[in-house]
Amino acid sequence: xxxxxxxxxxxxxxxxxxxxxALLLRAAESVPEHKQHKLLVADYGSSVSTSSAQLLAPVVQxxxxxxxxxxxxxxxLPENDWQALSEAVQSCxxxxxxxxxxxxxxxxxxxxxxxxxxxxxVSLGWSGIALQWLSASxxxxxxxxxxxxxxxxxxxxxxxxxxxxxxxxxxxHRATELKPGAHLIVTALCxxxxxxxxxxxxxxxxxxxxxxxxxxxGHGLGKATxxxxxxxxxxxP
Length: 237
Ligand SMILES: C[S@@+](CC[C@H](N)C(=O)[O-])C[C@H]1O[C@@H](n2cnc3c(N)ncnc32)[C@H](O)[C@@H]1O
Known about the structure:
Blueprint: H1 3-7, H2 11-18, H3 21-29, E1 34-44, H4 51-55, H5 57-64, E2 67-76, H6 82-91, E3 103-109, E4 122-128, E5 145-146, H7 153-177, E6 178-187, H8 196-217, E7 225-228, E8 232-235
Helix pairs in contact: 3-5
The structure holds S-adenosylmethionine.
């Protein structure tokens, strides 16, 4: 999706991310001083959203007083709209790039299911609403997009297994990249235990959204499977 289009739909991500502000600040407080060195903050699954740029501003401000340089690295897939991200980070109101003179921004065009940075170099890791994207499509889940009520139990088991393995791989790579004692903060879509009624309502809603999406995009465009509200899947164009 082109950058400007994405930002018409990122309010939900923005609100969910705001809820983590206090956690991010606490994590930044615990980063030791490195007056002669660079501190690296990683944003895994950045998209083109202005959400991270604003959310990270007070965090980066705090870190900038502890280091010679703070660099925020935005990680996303190679096909991300990198130019739109760069413009958003530079121009959006309240962006972290303007909080201090020793702050810079960098881009990392690779999957967060791989190692993205050298071992023990990341001082703070952050991921906002991105881990619903699985590492690969699940053929059993259907052609383009699907919901639990449109899948058999075999397909649901495959998706759960893939999601579990992806989470393990994601954490293993972050464990390598993060400095000892550094924090990783993740917001992810999920259903809480006992929310079956809400789950059913979401299933219905998502089924309609999937139908609309399928109509709009046609068939055969699937590339990766998206895990949606912990039990839904969609295949990305
Ligand atoms: C819903 S957007 C979240 C954007 C932003 N973090 C926010 O909070 O507004 C999810 C992003 O994750 C990215 N993504 C999906 N799978 C990925 C992967 N394997 N590696 C890196 N980024 C990925 C997508 O390309 C998309 O830009």
